Amino acid sequence: MDGHDQDVPEALGHPASSPMPPTLWTVVLEAGAGTETALERLCRLYWLPINAYLRRWGYNEHDAEDFTQTFLAHLLAKDRLAGIRRDKGRFRSYLLGALRNFVIDHNVRKRRLETLPLQAETPGDDRVREPVDPARTPEEEFERRFSLSLIQHALDRTRDDYSQRGQAERFDALRQFLPGEEPSCSQAEIGLRLGIPEGAVAKAVHDLRRRFAQAYRDAVRQTVNTSGEVDDEIKHHMAVLSR
User: Fold this and answer.
1) How far apart are CA 36 and CA 159, in angstroms?
2) Rg of the chain, C-alpha, whole Å
3) How many C-beta atoms surround the C-beta of residue 73 within 10 A?
4) Which of 27, 78, 188, 203 has the most other CB atoms within 10 Å of its CB?
5) CB of 240 within 8 A of CB of 144?
6) Looking at the predicted structure, is the pLDDT value of residue 220 above 80?
7) What is the pLDDT of residue 46?
8) For residues 225, 48, 156 and 82, what is the CA-based torsion angle, rounded to 10 degrees?
9) What tens digit of pLDDT does each residue of 90-110 get?
10) Which residues have CB under 8 Å from 71's CB, separation 6+?
11) Alpha-carbon distances of 154 from 1, 48, 197, 215, rounded to whole Å
12) Nearest to 38 by CA among 24, 27, 25
């Protein structure tokens, strides 16, 4: 789940009991209201799929980073988000449509680039430089990165949850047992490292999968209009990642 096409836990189809803090759509609505921290979080959440979309259009790495900022400046300027209502549907579709129109309707290469004071919020890891697949259309690349961003967001939220409980080391040791990952050692070895019985490791893995599944569902829930759309949206993201 570090930028690779991977499955997510089967438990994603079954909501857990402890809710994670609201994200995504809530952030969008707060950004529309002009909340500065919400604007920064919105840019950070969607930077990767927007950047991948532009690179698939043929922009080089440097230009794609500049144009990502240009699009975000365009999106956030003149209160464009202020009129968005959650009942408009899935923000994924809104964002892709806005991005597609931006590329088509504007000659970005000739625009004078605007600069947002959000450089510190730009993803600073290798995911930004992950090559785009020339076999995918820009829309397909956007959808893939959007799906991966939701998984990464759920992982980050889960780790934060463990950290708040003083269990960050446990999360880092156990995350390799999430579906889609390739464990580098056995649960017995993890037990020795953490100082707990192997049976307790199995229970801890089950608990991690449950918490991550809930965090993922919560993330997806914030991108759709109603709870009834969550399962279909998850199926959509799983189909995107399986291509």
Assistant:
1) 25
2) 19
3) 15
4) 27
5) yes
6) yes
7) 82
8) -40
9) 778 888 888 888 887 755 444
10) 50, 54, 99, 102
11) 10, 15, 28, 5
12) 27
Integer CA distances (angstroms), 126 to 71, 151, 164, in order:
22, 16, 27
Please tell me the predicted confidence (pLDDT) of residue 156. Answer: 92
Reduce the secondary structure of 68-118 to three states and give it as a string: HHHHHHHHHHHHHHHHCCHHHCCHHHHHHHHHHHHHHHCCHHHCCCCCCCC
**Which amino acid belongs to residue 134?**
P
Name every residue whose Cβ is closer than 8 Å to that of residue 218 and which is 6 or more positions away in sequence: 19, 20, 22, 23, 154, 157
Category of 34 on φ-ψ map: left (φ > 0), alpha (ψ -120 to 50) or beta: left
Task: State the amino acid at position 4 in one-letter form.
Answer: H
Residue 175's pLDDT is 95
pLDDT at 47: 86
Query: Quick one: tokens of 80?
Result: 């464009």
2 or 243, which is more confident: 243
User: Do the beta carbons of residue 9 and residue 181 sit within 8 Å?
Assistant: no
| Dihedral class, residue 163 (left if φ above 0, else alpha if ψ from -120 to 50, else beta) | alpha
Tokens 């450089």 belong to 119
Output the six-digit token pair for 213: 């599944």
